[in-house]
Task: inverse folding
């Protein structure tokens, strides 16, 4: 990719929304650090907006045919940065267990490593269905942990007290399980990429001979 192509990709609407999601990480972390009810409430709103842009940018990219290599790199990067930043901020607050953070971060670093190796050969491993589902559970779980307290939620016919801390924690545990299964999906994609590279290399050698 040329520099002009990358610059053009970054300036399309889906990637602008992705960059906006990255920018929101700073105020979300600052508000979580303050920890007072008003700050946490604003952090929840900003985190929800950031999570929403994850779906919106993908929808616009597919709808308008704006899927790009830059977007395939930026979108999962924005998700990882947002999730990791919020988890690290909540760790000293005691809202998330360290073992869960280790599992989730280890998975993300492993997948990032596989993507980096594939990228050196000119291939891009896109997020699969399992990875997207895992991200959805992660975002919902972190949103619950940010809300943290027990609130009455009014449904159509009844009112239920919801402990958002435990709801968020269990959603994150589900996301950890999905992280392991989706990691296998990415590993299969990585192997397919290596096989495709070897096939291309063998064809090139055959043509030269």
Result:
């Amino acid at each position: 990719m040329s520099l002009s192509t990358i610059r053009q990709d970054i300036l399309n609407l889906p990637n602008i929304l992705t960059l906006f999601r990255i920018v929101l990480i700073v105020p979300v972390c600052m508000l979580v650090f303050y920890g007072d009810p008003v700050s946490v409430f604003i952090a929840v709103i900003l985190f929800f907006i950031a999570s929403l842009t994850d779906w919106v940018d993908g929808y616009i990219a597919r709808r308008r045919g704006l899927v790009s290599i830059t977007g395939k790199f930026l979108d999962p990067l924005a998700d990882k940065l947002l999730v990791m930043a919020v988890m690290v901020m909540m760790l000293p607050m005691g809202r998330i267990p360290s073992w869960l953070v280790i599992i989730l971060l280890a998975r993300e670093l492993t997948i990032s490593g596989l993507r980096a190796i594939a990228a050196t050969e000119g291939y891009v491993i896109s997020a699969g269905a399992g990875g997207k589902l895992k991200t959805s559970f992660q975002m919902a779980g972190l949103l619950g942990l940010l809300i943290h307290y027990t609130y009455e939620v009014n449904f159509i016919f009844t009112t239920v007290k919801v402990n958002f801390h435990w709801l968020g924690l269990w959603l994150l545990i589900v996301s950890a399980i999905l992280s392991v299964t989706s990691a296998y999906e990415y590993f299969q994609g990585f192997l397919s990429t290596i096989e495709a590279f070897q096939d291309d290399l063998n064809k090139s050698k055959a043509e030269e001979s």
Observations:
- The chain has one domain: 3-203.
- Residues 29 and 89 are 7 Å apart (CA to CA).
- Helices lie at 3-10, 13-23, 25-34, 37-63, 69-90, 98-120, 129-147, 164-208.
